Amino acid sequence: MVGTPIFDELRNLFATSPGRFGPQPGAQSGSLKAATPPTKIIITGGPRTGKTTFVGSVSDTHPIAVEAATDFGRITLHADLVVYLFGTSQPGHQAFTGALGAVVLVDPRRIEDAFTMINYFENSSGVPFIVAVTMVDGGLDHDLDELRDALALDPQVPLMTCDARDPRSATAVLQQLISHTLNRNASNPG
Ligand SMILES: Nc1nc2c(ncn2[C@@H]2O[C@H](COP(=O)(O)OP(=O)(O)OP(=O)(O)O)[C@@H](O)[C@H]2O)c(=O)[nH]1
Ligand SMILES: [Mg+2]
After folding, report:
1. Strand-by-strand arrangement of the 159-161 sheet
2. For the domain with range 5-18+39-185, which CATH number is right: 2.60.120.1440, 3.90.226.10, 3.40.50.300, 3.40.50.1980?
3. pLDDT tens digits, 121-161
4. I need a surface site. Which of 7, 27, 76, 182 has the fewest CB within 10 A?
């Protein structure tokens, strides 16, 4: 999928912040530079919210189940810029360490399944996150503002709809996450 136009905006977003997201596989790391882990994004949410589907939609590879209930995928934006995706339902999974950000998937019919994860990101993790509402092809019973209230979601946290089966839709969610991460870093540096 290298060169796929749907990732152009994603590439551009990364390009606005050179050095933030590397070094990457294949990059020459100078001996004096501290090693930084590669860019990693978490796709999480309750059971049957589309995590595996989302990872598969945007990945170069078929999603690999690396252990029970954990998906692993990869997006190659450039030869030297690779984003790794981890899908898991477990708050605080070891894959969360050092992640660039997280997407919490929510099925609007079962929003209570998202509470534990949202609470985890709001209170126990420094990882920036956004919320994407999946399973919306039948339409939303309530609008997004009502859903935000029902989730008790901080107004700063982006909330959007997504069809995890559609690579464009899933890519738009990743763009939103990366923009949010950059904005958040810009407003509280360090
Ligand atoms: N309508 C709709 N169906 C979806 C969407 N995303 C996934 N699905 C379907 O929902 C089902 C569950 O999707 P999965 O990707 O397996 O969900 P999951 O979160 O990985 O599920 P678990 O790993 O079992 O927790 C599959 O049949 C998908 O095809 C979506 O955005 N809209
Ligand atoms: Mg799954």
Report:
1. 64-67, 70-78, 81-88, 39-45, 101-106, 129-133, 159-161
2. 3.40.50.300
3. 999 999 999 999 999 998 888 899 999 999 999 999 999 99
4. 27
